[in-house]
Here is the input.
Amino acid sequence: MKKIYMDYAATTPTHPDVLAAMQPYFCEKFGNPSSVHSFGRETRAAVENARKQVADLIGAKLKEIVFTSSGTEANNFAIEGIAFANEKVGNHIITSKIEHHAILEPCEFLESKGFKITYLPVDKYGLVDPKEVERAITDKTILVSIMQANNEIGTIEPIEEISKVIKEAASKLGHKVYFHTDAVQTVGQIEVNVDKLGVDLLSMSAHKFYGPKGVGALYIRSGTRIVPFIRGGAQENHRRASTENVVGIVGMGVAAELASKELDSREKELIRLRDKLIKGLLAKIPQTSLNGHPTKRLPKNVNISVKYIEGESMLLNLDFEGIAASTGSACTSGSLEPSHVLMALGLSHEGAHGSIRFSLGRLNTEEDVEKVLEVFPKIVEKLRSMSPLYKGKEEA
Here is the structure.
């Protein structure tokens, strides 16, 4: 039985070209980039080349890229680094209710330290209203953090419009209001340009675009006032101490270069497969609905709610058929609580628990989509046949 992987939002397989580029840096080219001898100079050159590859992908300058261990670390670095560096200016931060926990939990931590956090609502599609951002800004606001696209429902936020609102408000306040976006789900998936978006900080993670796990990066615009996240060395321009993960950084660089070259072709094919899957699921399975915006969504994302059955049951049955999907964020897969993202959209507990996410990737084919459209409706029918709630609804 051929296995079908449709959980690319959780992680992606390392591209073969990325793996090949990484191999020499395990044993042959092993020097510490901080060493002045030839072994160190060799790996320093590799790190800086990767920095250029990542910077080029998002339209940044080399010195504006700081390598981290993950997108989660990049988010923590951005939120806490800006907060503690600018607390004499103000103590107010604005974010949204549908952010990843890698944003929400640092914000909760800062609340315990006396910072004030505003959690903005979203509409039924998961969109943040730029006017809500404008209304939330006060003379104490120092940071706004809104994700570029949601990891669960795929909705792409109006980042450019929000940036304009922030800049206009900041000019009236007379102090800088920094703008951060969690772009972990977008970098390498759609066009991302930091100047076009108008952001000061941007988080990314290599394993979301066919690079290795354990490496990410934070874009920090030149002139940004931010404190180091890890202290104890001069690495990453004194902003993130510790010996660099050369192997991972090299892999991230190559993955970024490949993404830049293949971006258009990947995006067009994924949109085609995504739309076919959405259309087929909604047509074949009664009493289902699409979560997230119908058009302003990631090319890979399909998130639907199926009434009267529970998401985990659907996942287990799909897995039995060799199909991997998800009920939402991989970081909260062990939680029994309904998705905070789906609840923010206005779904009931039952609707949130009955949701499933298929996320497509470069290795998926039309045959994969057709297989899901063949198998999944049968699974839903079987599970509903065992549901007293569904039978009751049908009789009513």
